[in-house]
């Protein structure tokens, strides 16, 4: 992350063990369309579920990053 936030819009899959410790695997996806096709979502879910089946007792976080400032702003109606 640079001083102005992230450079790309990306989706990250991050796994945690049953104690909440992050596992050493982060899978980034870059250059995704704004509206994901059902086939792409199904593939992402298949990838997300695979370690759970192998390890058992783990959980996953899905993070979406985007370019822009890290400053907090107020969101008003119609924004």
Please estimate the helix content: 10-25%
* Percent of residues in β-strands: 35-45%
Give the number of DSSP strands: 3
Biggest β-sheet description: 3 strands, antiparallel
| Spatial arrangement of strands, main beta sheet | 2-1-3
Whole-angstrom Rg: 15 Å
Strand pairing plus helix content: what structural class?
Answer: alpha+beta
Mean pLDDT over the residues = 76
Low-confidence stretches: none
Terminal-residue CA separation: 25 Å
Shape: globular
Number of helices: 1
Description of the molecule:
- A hairpin with a 5-residue loop joins strand 1 and strand 2 (22-30).
- The chain is built from one helix and three strands; from the N terminus they run E-E-H-E.
- It starts with a strand and ends in a 12-residue tail after the last strand.
- The model has no long low-confidence stretch (mean pLDDT 76).
- It is an alpha+beta fold.
- The longest helix is centred in the middle third of the chain and has 18 residues, at 38-55.
- It has a three-stranded antiparallel beta sheet with strand order 2-1-3, with helices on one face.
- 23% of the residues lie in helices and 38% in strands.
- The chain is globular and about 40 Å long.
């Amino acid at each position: 992350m640079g001083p102005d936030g992230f450079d790309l819009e990306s989706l990250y899959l991050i796994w945690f063990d049953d104690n909440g410790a992050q596992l050493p695997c982060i899978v980034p996806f870059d250059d995704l369309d704004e509206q994901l096709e059902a086939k792409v979502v199904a593939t992402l879910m298949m990838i997300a579920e695979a370690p759970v089946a192998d390890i058992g007792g783990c959980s996953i976080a899905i993070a979406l990053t985007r370019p822009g400032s890290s400053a907090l702003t107020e969101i008003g109606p119609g924004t």
